[in-house]
Every structure is written in structure tokens, then in C-alpha cells.
Design goal:
Layout lengths: L1 H20 L3 H5 L2 E8 L7 E3 L1 H14 E17 L2 E14 L4 E15 L2 E11 L11
Parallel strand pairs: 1-6
Antiparallel strand pairs: 1-2, 3-4, 4-5, 5-6
Length: 140
């Protein structure tokens, strides 16, 4: 049933955000497939390929962020076939870094999703700014 699939995909994206906000890199990375891509080069960060690289970035992020919030909204999901989908969602991210910096980004996540034996996962997330990102002092 497509509604269940959409719910599972949205849940994966929300696990990512909650994991980042609660400094739980395991939960954040649980949203991603083993061979996934997380690309935030357009907002001044890096591109990571593979679960281990993405997880390592989330570990460093958890250590560098004092407080933060990611608000995801306006999910659109379209199916390519029974096991692949793509979509978008908007993110408003704001954080206070341990080094005293404050960051903010409003962006569009362009995602690809894949059904795995563990359920739907993000296979690619490309983050595109919608306003000028304020990332000075984001050091991980």
C-alpha cells in the first residue's frame, strides 16, 4: 500500500532529523542505506558516500553542536517502482555550536529512497539552499 510506504519514507527522514537534534548519530544514520550519499556541498559542507562515512560525520556533528533543531516539512514522494522512490522535503536547520557560532540554513532536500530488508532508507540526499546559508563557524 503506497500510503504505508510514504509513511515509512517520511519516518526515515524524521529519524535523521531527530537523531541529529538529540546528538544520536546512530539514529540519524539509521535513515540511510549502506551505499548512500549525503551531499551538503551547496550549503558549504561536504559530500559523504557510504554509511560509514555518513555515520562518522554525524558523530563529529554531535560532538560539535551544543543545541540544534531540524524542522522537516512539505514531503513529496514519487515512486519509480516498488522498491525505489524519489522526493523532496524542506528543512529549516538552526544550531548553536560548542565554539560559540550560530548557524542557520533553509534548504530543499532532494532525496532518493530505496526499500531494504530493514525498510525504506534514504539512498541519496542532496541539500540545496533556498536562502543564503549562515554556516560560519560550523567546524566538525
Amino acid at each position: 500500500m503506497r500510503a504505508d510506504d510514504i509513511n515509512d519514507i517520511v519516518r526515515a527522514t524524521n529519524l535523521y532529523a531527530r537523531g541529529l537534534d538529540l546528538a544520536d548519530p546512530d539514529e540519524a544514520a539509521s535513515a540511510f542505506a549502506s551505499d548512500s550519499v549525503w551531499d551538503a556541498t551547496a550549503v558549504g559542507l561536504e559530500r559523504y558516500e557510504g554509511y560509514d562515512a555518513i555515520h562518522a560525520f554525524f558523530v563529529a556533528d554531535a560532538a560539535a553542536v551544543a543545541r540544534g533543531a531540524h524542522i522537516l516539512t512539505n514531503h513529496i514522494v514519487d515512486f519509480d517502482d516498488d522498491d525505489h522512490a524519489h522526493g523532496t522535503n524542506y528543512v529549516f536547520a538552526e544550531a548553536e555550536m560548542n565554539n560559540g557560532a550560530a548557524i542557520k540554513a533553509i534548504a530543499l532536500n532532494r532525496d532518493k529512497y530505496i526499500r531494504t530488508s530493514d525498510g525504506w532508507k534514504i539512498s541519496e540526499r542532496v541539500i540545496t539552499p533556498m536562502t543564503t546559508p549562515q554556516m560560519d563557524g560550523f567546524e566538525v
